[in-house]
Recover the amino acids of this structure.
């Protein structure tokens, strides 16, 4: 009997890396320990990663997976990879890093994003490229480096994501995936090409970016150093890293336009994956790619589980906080919260927006602040949901993933109440690594289509109709506060 193929899947997340091994039905066979790496933050809004730190964590993680496979006595069929979207660094003419990795939450380039808005037509750009001018994306970061880190900028011969850097190190040539290019802010997801107007404005030459002749193509034949280190990985095909958000969608089984994925980790996102020849991109959302045939439409929040963490760290919660939270009536706290502690991405893309809490009184309790904060994040997802549903139709279900929601079933119920749709909890814990593996299983012909692979789900949280009007009222209060603080209304 032929053994099921094994796919190694390396996942570089926003704070840690991990490598898993999946079988032909994307069931985990091996899971390595999570290896954290440091984010270097500054009061000026900087969030950087030392390339060497992340590379060292990558080597350690792959070492662990290779050792486990050797003990198992199995050779994998392929390597899958996913990395956090929007990772950005420069390398010099010799391939050495000339900049740190600038994290997606680095907001120092906000003035440069504003300059892009003044100089170019953002509405037309968004309709072509699927992104806006925002510090999350490469264009504003490039302008910032040119102005504030001129030596680094001048030393940079090529610009790439971390996944491309790994391929250059392991194979001597960088390989990129459409998925990663689509989230740079330089790539037209409909035409599947770089945006010529933007490249001209930035003074970029195509040869400074990913080599499109290798786009989405696997590499094999590791450099001698790494072939000796990982003989089981030496000759198998390594597929270019895809964006972790796209991988998350398919990893939880959300690969139809009638299903929306709701992910709450450190940050948050709501996305739909679908096949179409062309997409008209609605205002407020972004549009990326999973691969050359599938779009990913959605929105992202800089503030997801981080809001939960912020409240828990700063307020002394009673031991039975979750029981109190479960018994609380939505909105009874009288508070209005804007959970924009790390600025705003979707839907208004105001990196300068900040959090606010109004309605506090001498009797306000820590649990009430927690309840209002978690409700406020659910309402931010409602803003994304409304735009997605208008474009794709109301989903049959919303699939919830992410460690933050696993910590609180009450928060998952809030999501269902705020969205007014059933929310189904995913039981697949490593959804990004799993999704990357599923895509590779399709690429190597182990399955004909991703949808052949089942994904486990758990409880379904139904919206409580008695609170529908309450959440509508809370959303209007949040919109009013936002308008007063940031739009002069």
């Amino acid at each position: 009997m032929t053994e099921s193929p094994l796919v190694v899947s390396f996942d570089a997340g926003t704070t840690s890396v991990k490598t898993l091994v999946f079988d032909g039905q994307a069931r985990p066979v091996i899971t390595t320990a999570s290896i954290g790496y440091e984010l270097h933050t500054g009061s000026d809004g900087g969030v950087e990663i030392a390339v060497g730190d992340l590379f060292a964590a990558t080597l350690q993680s792959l070492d662990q997976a290779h050792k486990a496979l050797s003990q198992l006595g199995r050779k994998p069929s392929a390597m899958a990879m996913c990395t956090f979207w929007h990772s950005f660094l420069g390398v010099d003419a010799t391939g050495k890093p000339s900049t740190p990795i600038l994290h997606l939450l680095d907001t120092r380039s906000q003035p440069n994003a504003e300059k892009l808005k003044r100089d170019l037509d953002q509405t037309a750009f968004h309709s072509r490229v699927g992104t806006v001018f925002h510090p999350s994306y490469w264009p504003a970061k490039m302008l910032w480096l040119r102005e504030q880190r001129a030596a680094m900028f001048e030393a940079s011969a090529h610009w790439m994501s971390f996944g491309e850097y790994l391929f250059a190190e392991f194979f001597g040539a960088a390989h990129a995936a459409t998925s990663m290019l689509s989230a740079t802010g330089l790539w037209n997801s409909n035409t599947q090409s770089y945006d010529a107007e933007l490249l001209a404005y930035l003074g970029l030459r195509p040869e400074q970016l990913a080599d499109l002749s290798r786009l989405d193509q696997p590499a094999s034949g590791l450099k001698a150093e790494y072939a000796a280190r990982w003989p089981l990985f030496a000759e198998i095909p390594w597929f270019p890293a895809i964006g972790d958000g796209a991988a998350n969608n398919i990893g939880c089984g959300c690969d139809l336009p009638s299903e929306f994925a709701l992910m709450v980790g450190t940050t948050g996102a709501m996305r739909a994956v679908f096949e179409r020849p062309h997409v008209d991109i609605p205002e407020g959302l972004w549009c990326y790619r999973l691969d050359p045939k599938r779009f990913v439409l959605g929105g992202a929040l800089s503030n997801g589980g981080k809001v939960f963490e912020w409240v828990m760290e700063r307020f002394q919660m009673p031991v039975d906080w979750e029981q109190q939270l479960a018994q609380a009536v939505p909105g009874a706290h009288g508070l209005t919260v804007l959970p924009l502690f790390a600025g705003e991405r979707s839907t208004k893309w105001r990196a300068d927006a900040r959090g606010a809490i109004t309605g506090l009184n001498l009797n306000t309790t820590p649990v009430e602040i927690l309840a209002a904060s978690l409700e406020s994040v659910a309402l931010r997802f409602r803003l994304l949901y409304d735009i997605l549903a208008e474009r794709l139709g109301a989903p049959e279900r919303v699939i919830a993933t992410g460690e933050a929601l696993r910590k609180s079933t009450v928060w998952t119920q809030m999501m269902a109440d705020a969205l007014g749709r059933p929310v189904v909890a995913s039981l697949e814990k490593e959804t990004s690594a799993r999704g990357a593996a599923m895509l590779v299983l399709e690429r190597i012909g182990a399955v004909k289509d991703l949808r052949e692979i089942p994904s486990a789900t758990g409880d379904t949280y139904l919206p409580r109709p008695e609170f529908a009007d309450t959440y509508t009222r809370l959303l209007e209060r949040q919109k009013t506060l936002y308008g007063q603080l940031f739009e002069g209304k």
User: Anything to note?
Assistant: Residues 49 and 101 are 5 Å apart (CA to CA). The radius of gyration is 22 Å.
